[in-house]
Amino acid sequence: MGKTGQPSWAKRILKLLEQAKAKDPDFERFGAYSHQYRLAAPASEEQILKFEEQQGIRLPEEFRDFLLHVGNGGAGPYYGLYGIRDLGDGLHDSHGARIYRVQEEPVIYPKMSDEEWNRMTAPESRQGDSMGKGGEAHPYVGVLPIGSQGCTLMTGLMLAGPYRGQVVYCDEDYCGPPFFVREKGFLSWYERWLREVIAGYSDEETGFGMNIDGNPTQLMELYEQAQDPAEKIEIIDSYYKFETLPGKQKTYFKQACARESDMEVRMKLIKMMARFHVPGMAKELETLWEYGAYAEAVSIITYEGTWEVKEAWYEKVFEILPKLHGEGFRDACHTISAMKEYPNVHAGRLKEALGRDGLDRNDRIALFHCIKDLKGKEEVLDYFLEYLSTEEDPGILIYAVWCTEGVEDRQLQELFVKLMDKYRTHENTRFDYKGSQMVLKGGACMGASRPEGQLTSNLMRQFDYFGLDYRGAWKLLMDDGRWREWKGQNGFL
């Protein structure tokens, strides 16, 4: 320990943080604009003890040491880490009701099956109050939220049991089982994030920490030893964090693909190599299509990156769209969007897709992204007039509003005003924009991590900030009298 009393490991982390900030000076990595690679001053022992006494817990040692010796919140994966004050606030909803019971034993565990997760989160399993009183335990008991990943996704820390101290990713809407990161402790997870930022690895496709740690050579060595198809697929998927694929790995995986007998692994290899433009992958399309592997074929069409491939196949993508779901459906939306300049590619051709039952949240968001880029959005206006009137999830409404940008229709504007009436002064909207309404980048407020705030920002854009600058528009929205006056002047009362 140095003269300042700061451990050597803490100094190492701070040095890595400086390097990470230098690597991403414009804060382009997801969430970086929110924390800007800054940490608050370390917490005192007294602050930590007071929090622990209030909550009736003992923080896992590595996280506790981080708060004490490195920083009391700030820079971290996604939108960053909570400090002591935010740790306490994160245990309650916007109305002050407690939604996390941190003193209880956790009930979640790694690699939960969908069946077990659905059983645990079914309404009948959570009878009584919001914490499951009178029924089974709330899924996230024993988990401490330590950061936001945006919308309903949060980063948590296991407080007890065999996984104490391990970082876990959770969806507060229970849309899927939790994901336990591979690192057993908080510090190795945090250092990995810094290393990957410094190395220039991307987290756009998979999110940080969802894949296997390692560089291209290390992952190739793991693949050489792997026997289980599921393990091979996990290694293949981990390559998506790299911007490029070195020549040695291109040669190796092309040879591995030729001798691979498991069709699912082979398809994953083809898709991954197409993503990195390995020559010869487009020739595999016909084989995959004949095999019925439409999702894998569409992924190659999407990621091959050549206009010749997309021109030859995009009509078949339109034809197969009704049969696709999940990742294949989303890839098809990307391909259709890429062909937006072609005369026969327009929003009207996606009416059937808009009306499909069974599209999950991510599928629908991808579809809205696609329509946003297409001409002829007026052809699907009737759908959006109904959808915007009935959808209750602000996280999806963000994209639906964004999708209809540029459509001139009075009924649509009236719906936008009704949505602003509903969300403009929501507690989460106020929280998101406090101190950040002056920060603009790309036409929208940066730093908003809560869907109500993001939705309000998108709605404001539809009215060109009401003819005001952004700060003036925000003040107008927050002032009930001025907002009512504006609605009257523009015929929206």
Question: What is the topological layout?
Answer:
Elements: H1 8-23, H2 32-35, H3 45-55, H4 61-69, H5 84-89, H6 114-121, E1 143-150, E2 153-158, E3 167-171, E4 179-180, H7 186-199, H8 216-225, H9 229-237, H10 247-259, H11 263-275, H12 285-291, H13 294-304, H14 307-320, H15 326-338, H16 351-354, H17 361-373, H18 381-390, H19 394-403, H20 410-423, H21 427-433, E5 440-441, E6 444-445, H22 451-461, H23 470-478, H24 480-489
Antiparallel strand pairs: 1-2, 2-3, 3-4, 5-6
Number of discrete helical segments: 24
- CA-based shape: globular
CATH class of the domain at 8-199: Alpha Beta
Show unreliable segments. 93-97, 127-136, 437-447
Question: How widely separated are the two ends?
Answer: 67 Å
Q: Could you spell the SSE succession in H and E letters?
A: HHHHHHEEEEHHHHHHHHHHHHHHHEEHHH
What structural class do the secondary elements suggest?
mainly alpha
Question: How many strands?
Answer: 6
The order of strands across the largest sheet is 1-2-3-4
Helix content: 40-55%
CATH superfamily of the domain at 8-199: SMI1/KNR4-like
Largest sheet: 4 strands, antiparallel
Percent in strands: 5-15%
CATH topology of the domain at 8-199: SMI1/KNR4-like
Radius of gyration from CA coordinates = 24 Å
CATH architecture of the domain at 8-199: 3-Layer(aba) Sandwich
Q: Give the averaged pLDDT, no decimals.
A: 86
